[in-house]
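HOLO CASE FILE
Compound: histidyl-adenosine monophosphate
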Amino acid sequence: MAQHSSLPGFRDFYPRDFATRAHIFSAWREAARRFGFEEYDGPPLEALELYTDKSGEEIVRQLYNFVDKGGREVALRPEMTPTFARMVGARAGELRKPIRWFSIPQLFRYERTQRGRLREHFQWNVDIVGEEGVAADAEVVAVALEALCLLGLTEADVVVRLSDRRLMERLLLHAGVPADQLMAAYAAIDKLGRVEERVIRERLETEAGLGPASVDEVFRIFRLGELSALEGAYREVEGVAEELDRLAEFFRIVDDMGLGGFVTFDPTIVRGLAYYTGIVFEIFDRQGVFRAICGGGRYDTLLEAVSGVSLPALGFGMGDVVLKELLADRGLVPEGGAGVDFYLAAVGEEERRVVRRVASRLRSQGYSVLYSLRPAGVRAQLKDADARGARRVVVVGPDEVRSGEVVVREMATGAEERVRLEEL
Ligand code: HAM
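Model generated. Tokens follow.
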């Protein structure tokens, strides 16, 4: 018989892996709850054109798309944002603004599989619609950090690297990038630090059509790095001062929230996706060992493009793959499964009937209960209880049935307590 394994880039979640996934999801949901975001979901399959129009080249190249039996061009969702924009747009009039929603979709991208990049992943999406001020940008950064802190990560582990496309647009136009080549320039710059500078230079020349002097100026901007250095060099350039002031306000808010230590300005963060229009950010491990844990930003024109309703919007996606790698590296993945509250061991056939009745009662009270499904020796049952992480064990034999009293043994401490069977 043929041995089947999962497809490359797709994961099996054995219970141990599933427990880690559930641990991450519960931090995501708890952070979202603390910040008052409501959960939603959409379909995993969408019309192909939802992505070909809006997502940008890189994601479109990675689409899992096909023609369905009705002749429709469809694609598995590679990201949630177009679906989110479509859903919000369809009911924009009746929804209370700002809209604060989150979701944990499984997404599919035909990527070259490598460390931190698979062909499916779960991605926590948190988005706000209907608020143009930077307080909203700070809010989404804060909720992302809340989840990471809930998982045990600190300022020493993670950093938010952030920029603003409006500022970079001003600077790139000043450097001589033609307005219609900004996307191509962002796409090239997005690779800074990940591919050789020579390659980026070449892409800026061939794909964004820049002359050598413009390319030099672009590199100069990105080498300056610090916000204060950019301010010193370019504040007088048209439109730059107001963008710098906006960023300064953002940083003030983040400081008020007590998160200043987590966030740093980094002009090389432009994001690969086409729809971003304002502040953009990515979260990385501080040592820079892993790929991005999270990426997002403001996309004030996407809703209009998808649904005809013009509303400012922003948010992020945080993937489970890199996050899990980082948590494992820091020893922050909880050991062991959930275990059970009770394991009931029966000495003989008669007691098995008692065990079944007691188990039903305990379960209806909300306890998790296990017992052996087939007759087994008491020693084997106790061994099984231990292996399955039972917190309490009760042995029911003829004496216990006769006296109506059992001993409940706490596995962690060894403490024993006599309890009436009916009271269990
Ligand atoms: P993205 O940067 O493409 O953004 O993905 C966000 C995060 O999802 C990444 O930082 C990474 O952790 C994870 N991720 C992406 N692709 C993969 C993959 N192939 N394997 C494992 N993890 C992956 C977006 O998707 C935007 N739609 C996020 C967003 C929401 N922006 C605004 N709202």
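CASE NOTES: Residues 340-423 form a domain with the Rossmann fold fold (CATH 3.40.50.800). The pocket of histidyl-adenosine monophosphate is lined by residues 79-81, 109, 111, 117-118, 121, 123, 125, 127, 273, 292-296, 315-317, 319, 321-322 (CB under 6 Å).
CLOSED: yes
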